[in-house]
Amino acid sequence: MISIAGRAVGPGHPPYVVAELSGNHNGSLERALAIVDAVADAGAHALKLQTYTPDTLTVDADGPAFRLGDAHSLWGGERLYQLFQRAMTPWEWHEPLFARARERGLAAFSSPFDPTAVEFLEKLDVPAYKIASSELVDLPLIRLAAATGKPLIISTGMATAGEIDAAVTAAREAGCTRLAVLACTASYPAAPSESNLRALPLLAALTGEVVGVSDHTPGIGVPLAAVALGACLIEKHVTLARADGGVDAAFSLEPAELAALVTESARAWEALGEPVLGPRPSEREGLRFRRSLYVVRDVRAGEEVGPGNVRSIRPAGGLPPDAVREVTGRRFVRDVPKGTPLTWDLI
Predict the structure, then answer these.
(1) Which ranges of 104-208 would DSSP assign to H, the alpha helix?
(2) Boundaries of each AFP-like domain copy (predicted)?
């Protein structure tokens, strides 16, 4: 179990839902603030930003290495530098966005993408750090974020078991004692068929840490399924309306969907219960209305037991239904009124 801004995150608690703003502000601070309010109204627990500039992520260059593949469904052929220009959250927006989030009861933190981002976010006293999937191999960045003593969340999209182990080891060796590791498919949008959620218990066993999902699939089905497999933290991109467009809109939740995710993930967690079989306390009343053998019309002493006077009906109280093979053909030892549970002393 870990805690983020005083809220427990782990198997004994409802899933912690993080809403990712990313580039869905569409270049407007007012829209970004409106998304913060929508996230709070939906009942999510945290707001997350991404802290970078195009120059901290790449260089202003062209050529195949600096362009998305033409087949990419959202950003095909676009230069990395131009994409990051569109998607970045201006650093001067961070303070008002974090302030609005705190006012609305949200934890607010970010993904740093280089040392200058960590330095900047430390001045804003963020309560946690998130390492994006592409930065999982940047062990110096992980060590720097871990050395702050803040909780660290690491996404594992594209990563091998060895790379995940190296990242977790780097975080621990740098002093991180509160770590969460997220399963992730780093494609945008991601196909549910590539989520491989059955790997979540494997991820937990490999790392020994709290696990969750950073999900880029449509809708909320994948994160809800993840809860059943041990996800304690759920991260989803959020927008006001997908129809408004934007860098991440296609794989982002709208506010009503985010609210449904918060509600249904808590229900899914609650439904996990314990690995036991048997009647639940709430079923005690139902046990009274199981079927059993009853006398279904008035009978006289000496009358033979048969389908005309004894049947399996509700409620409970009589012999079990399967006892009908043993009682059929026997005789009643006394008069018995209709509605009497059949017991051995009556025949």
Answers:
(1) 115-123, 139-146, 161-173, 200-207
(2) 292-347
Please state, in angstroms and rounded to a whole number, the distance separating the CA atoms of residues 308 and 42: 60
**Among positive and negative, which fits the CA dihedral 192, 220, 271, 315?**
negative
CB 84 within 8 A of CB 58: yes
DSSP state of 79: B
Output the pTM of the full model: 0.90
Digits of tens for pLDDT over the chain (347 positions)?
999 999 999 999 999 999 999 999 999 999 999 999 999 999 999 999 999 999 999 999 999 999 988 888 788 888 989 989 999 999 999 999 999 999 999 999 999 999 999 999 999 999 999 999 999 999 999 999 999 999 999 999 999 999 999 999 999 999 999 999 999 999 899 999 999 999 999 999 999 999 999 999 999 999 999 999 999 999 999 999 999 998 999 999 999 999 999 999 999 999 999 999 999 999 999 999 999 999 999 999 999 999 999 999 999 999 999 999 999 999 999 999 999 999 999 99
C-alpha–C-alpha distance, residues 140 and 9, integer Å: 26
Q: Are residues 246 and 286 in the same domain?
A: no
What's the maximum distance between 2 C-alpha atoms anywhere in the chain?
A: 102
- Residue 270 near residue 56 (C-beta atoms within 8 A): no
The string of DSSP letters for 193-251 reads GG--GGGHHHHHHHH-SEEEEEE-SSSSHHHHHHHHTT--EEEEEB-S-GGG--SSGGG
- Shared domain for 103 and 46, answered yes or no, is yes
Closest CA to 152 of 118, 198, 186, 103: 118
Last residue of one domain, picked from the residues 272, 305, 326:
272
Q: Which residues have C-beta within 8 Å of that of residue 212, sequence separation ≥ 6?
A: 15, 16, 153, 180, 181, 182, 183, 226, 231, 232, 233, 234, 235
125: helix, strand or coil: coil
Pair (166, 227) in one structural domain: yes
User: What gap in Å lies between CA 77 and CA 186, rounded to an integer?
Assistant: 18
Decide if 60 is inside a domain.
no
